Amino acid sequence: MHPSARRRTCRTLRGAIAWSYDQLEPAQQALFRRLGVFVGGLTLDAAAAVDGEAVGVVDRLESLVAKSLLRPRPGGEGERRFDLLEMLRAFALEQLHAGGELAAARRAHLTWCIGLARTAAEAWDTPQQRDWIERIDAEQDNLRAVLTWSLDASPGAMVDGWAGTASRDLMVAQRAIGRVAHRRGDFGAAEAALTAAMRNARAIDEPDEAVRTLISLGMRARGVGRMDDAQAFYAEALALVRQSGAERRMGDCHYNLGALAMLRGDLAATRAQLEESRTIAHRHGNVRGEVFAVAALGTQSAWEGDAERAIDLLHGGLTRAEANGIRDQAVVHARNVLASVVQSVGRSASSGSATGRSWPYGSGTGNTPPIIP
To answer: What pLDDT digit, counting tens, does each position of 256-299 carry?
Structure first.
């Protein structure tokens, strides 16, 4: 299409959008304008969060669909999602800006995104983790857009000191984005999100948040084979924990250092770090952390050829987990390792060999040490 013809078509489409918008009732117009801040679609609860009038939001959404200003599509598990075509979204943003409503709409959008990320973070190591990974994944465009805006916004864009009070919540959201991006293999996005979270943590002097983010950065580095970088991140996290005296978090640092040492083949360092992690977890009643450490120690024992010790360790850890009602990722991981060890013993017995090295570490059975976030 010739550029002049394209411009005429755009003007015609924009005129049609403006005409449809003028036919809306004021409450419908207000909702349409606010939906312009969403990128990559939205859900019903997201629309309600920015609408300001929860009552009747479904009817207002349906009126926008009926006038072709909003497009419905299926979401996860039967949930409805709605899309704005880019030209419609641009028109809505123009109307927000013209009415001086853009900053308020973006704050509402940001608040909704932070709430989503915080809930996902709280559910991360529960049976609902997979569901929340999918939910966060579906909102990647919204999360990235809102975080970019919040970081780039001028101080006046977020009034009443809101930007400062939201900094810790922003870190939670950034870390959630980084972890999901890492799982999807989008390592560039993972590093960008986690680096932003680390910058926030340092800026507002939040050592515990900094430690959690450093561990996530170590996870990302380890996942792409940058072992020296992972070592540096974990070591920095441990140094921060020692300064703050938060010993419970220290156990997580020792665990991740031990898992990294195992991947690098330094079995002496592995055992020292994991035993320290196990001791700290037990002292603080952190059964979940203890089970993770025991699973990794069982992995090492099997790798060294001592399958009997590995099985004893894993049975002991799983018994403690059951007694304490722990049924999350730690238990699943320990059970996977135990199944691998038992299977390897059977193979070794049938071949007349008792060496644990016949069982390959990381053989696809879920026995690669995870990261405690």
So the answer is: 999 999 888 898 999 999 999 999 999 988 888 888 888 889 88
Question: In this predicted structure, what is the pLDDT of residue 349?
Answer: 43
Q: What is the pLDDT of residue 158?
A: 47
Which residues, 6 or more positions from 321, have their beta carbon under 8 angstroms from its beta carbon?
Answer: 287, 288, 291, 327, 330, 331, 334
Domain boundary among 75, 100, 125: 100
Query: 77 and 204: one domain?
Result: no
Single residue among 220, 241, 262 that ends a domain in this structure: 241
164 lies in the same domain as 277: no
**DSSP letter, residue 82:** E
Q: pLDDT by residue (tens digit) across 38-59?
A: 998 999 989 999 987 767 899 9
Residue 280 to residue 13: CA distance in whole angstroms = 65
Structure tokens at 51: 């609408």
Q: How many domains does the chain have?
A: 3
Residues 114 and 236 in one domain: yes
The domain of 190 spans 102-241
**CA separation for the pair 57, 47 (Å, rounded):** 8
314: three-class secondary structure by DSSP: helix
Q: Are 61 and 70 in contact (CB under 8 A)?
A: yes
> In the 3-class helix/strand/coil scheme, how is 268-310 assigned residue by residue?
HHHHHHHHHHHHHHHHCCCHHHHHHHHHHHHHHHHHCCCHHHH
β strands within the chain, DSSP E: 42-43, 71-74, 80-83
Orientation of helix 140-152 relative to helix 167-183, angle to 10°: 140
CATH of the domain at 52: 1.10.10.10
CA 88 to centroid of chain Cα atoms: 30
CA–CA distances in Å: residue 219 to residues 25, 96, 176, 264, 281: 51, 41, 13, 14, 20
Q: Between β-strands 42-43 and 71-74, what pairing exists: parallel, antiparallel or unpaired?
A: unpaired
